[in-house]
Amino acid sequence: MTPWEMAAVLAAGAAGGAINTVVGSGSLITFPTLLAIGLPPITANVSNNIGLVPGGLTGVMGYRAELKGQRGRLLRLAPASVVGSVAGCLLLLNLPESTFSTIVILLIALSCALVVAQPAISRMLAMRPGPSSGAHGGLWLWLGTLAAGTYGGYFGAGQGILLIGLMGILLNDDLQRLNAAKNVLVLLVNTVAAVLYALVADVDWLAVLLVALGSMAGGFLGARVGRRLPPAVLRGVIVCIGAAAIVKLLID
User: Fold this and answer.
1) Is residue 26 within 8 Å of residue 190, measured between CB atoms?
2) What is the pLDDT of residues 164-206, one digit of tens each?
3) What angle in degrees, to the nearest 10, is found between the helix axes of 41-62 and 97-127?
4) Burial annotation 44-57 (CB, 10 A radius, 16+ → b, else e)
């Protein structure tokens, strides 16, 4: 890896950590960057997943105030995230790389669509009247968290947007509190996946280190100042990079 490539991965890690904390889908920054420097798709995916875990931790720490009173909710949903993450990892490790490259194109496209649709989803959630499905969202939220965990264990980009959309529909709570809960569940999914990947997958540890250093700084800054970023610009950048990743995978 050249010094310029190392700088690019470090910068991508910072951007990805900040975006994951504020919006979700930060992997649409880091994963294409790792592809661009020449890592194979599965190696890029697992290295990216492991590297983003420290950024997720700093992001959770930055949302400590919004997590107050959510212990019961998180304890109920955490097993779904863990089981889903393991299932997604097993799929990734047992399916051939050619299958991953095909599926990940669809997942990146889905993630980009979720990023574009997020403002409409947020407006819908803000205007939604009526009762929720209880303090913990009921069975539907548990199953949705399981599905999001499986998605995240296989390919992480966009799982945060899926989660916050589900929680917003099924829970009647402040959106910032839901975002804080989302950060915890995504961190749990990524941590479980990272442990499994570190044990059995092909990992580029230099890439992990650079993404980790960047994502730690990005996660902290995202929790502090991320709400001040122009959302339209941020979404545009994410979608453009996601489209570039799709083109790269198609060419390869």
Assistant:
1) no
2) 777 777 777 776 787 788 889 999 999 999 999 888 888 999 9
3) 30
4) bbbbbbbbbbbbbb
What gap in Å lies between CA 195 and CA 106, rounded to an integer?
Answer: 26
| Lookup: tokens for 168 | 């917003």
Answer for the pair 251, 41: CB distance below 8 angstroms, yes or no.
no
pLDDT for res 228: 60
Taking the mean position of all CA atoms in its chain, how far away is CA 195?
16
DSSP letters spanning 50-119? HHHHHHHHHHHHHTHHHHTT-HHHHHHHHHHHHHHHHHHHHHHHHS-HHHHHHHHHHHHHHHHHHHHHHH
CA distance 126 to 120: 10
Spatial separation of the C-alpha atoms in residues 43 and 172, rounded to whole Å: 39
Tell me the one-letter amino acid at 160.
G
How many Cα atoms within 13 Å fall on the side-chain side of residue 157? 29
Task: Annotate 130-195 with DSSP letters as a single string.
Answer: S--S-TT-HHHHHHHHHHHHHHHHH--TTHHHHHHHHHHHH--S-HHHHHHHHHHHHHHHHHHHHH
User: Over the stretch 54-113, which tens digit does the pLDDT of each residue have?
Assistant: 888 887 887 788 888 888 888 999 999 999 999 999 988 888 777 776 777 777 777 677
- Return the DSSP state at 49: H
Tell me the three state secondary structure of residue 39.
coil
Give the end-to-end CA distance of the chain in Å, rounded to a whole number: 20
pLDDT for 188 equals 93
Q: Up-side HSE of residue 169: CA atoms within 13 Å toward CB? A: 13
